[in-house]
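Could you join me in thinking about how sequence relates to backbone shape in a protein? We need material for that, and I hope you will provide a protein of your own picking. Once you have written the record down, we can walk along the chain together:

…
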Amino acid sequence: MTVSSLFALDGRTALVTGARTGIGRAAALALAEAGADLVLWGHHDDLETVAAEVADRGRKVRTVVADLLDAGSVRAVADQVLTAGPVDILVNNAGIIHRSPALEADDASWRKVLQVNLDAVFQLCRLFGQPMCQRGRGKIINVASMLSFQGGLNVSSYTASKHGVAGLTKALANEWAAGGVNVNAVAPGYVITDNTVQLRTDEGRAAEILSRIPAGRWAEPDDIAGSVVYLASSAADYVHGHLLVVDGGWMAR
């Protein structure tokens, strides 16, 4: 087996949630370049641009829409996707964040963040993981965070959800690894995405963050995409329950 073949994804289908922008878009395009066909999952029906970019890379592409807050819709769309054909790679990327001190946070925002970032991830892992377990192969890549390890500031619900994603990744790996299904996670550092706009526009906080990153810059979404391709590929067949930190050295500081 050649090194290039270890990373080739030809003949496989990958589903990416939150695929319109940021890490989700970058991951979808990288998976397409590695040879995978794509199912792009979005909250709104606005995935045409990303779909066209995937098609330009010579890959088949479908788009589906479902609100991750609606478990019934999630199940219905997952059933629709699986009826059309198997999903070999699941990338649980979609996520939201609510920034406020814990004493000022409302119950509704707490519940919403946990539902999107953790409950929906568990639901999708089970819906797509079951046929993977039946086939004896499959790759699940969850998007965790540095806040899967740390507490952060004024993001209690997000931190709780990402700690949950880390634990869920390890728990499912323990259950499914022997059956040929790899469950892992990527833990990005500070990335230039919609979720970090508030931080990046706060000059003081942005400077504090930058001063701690050994790489000397914030990540671009493309900096995260390669780790997703790796975990989706045969090169990672013996990697189970791992949280791959991609943070410019933040956790080492």
User: Anything to note?
Assistant: The mean pLDDT is 97. Residues 215 and 248 are 5 Å apart (CA to CA).
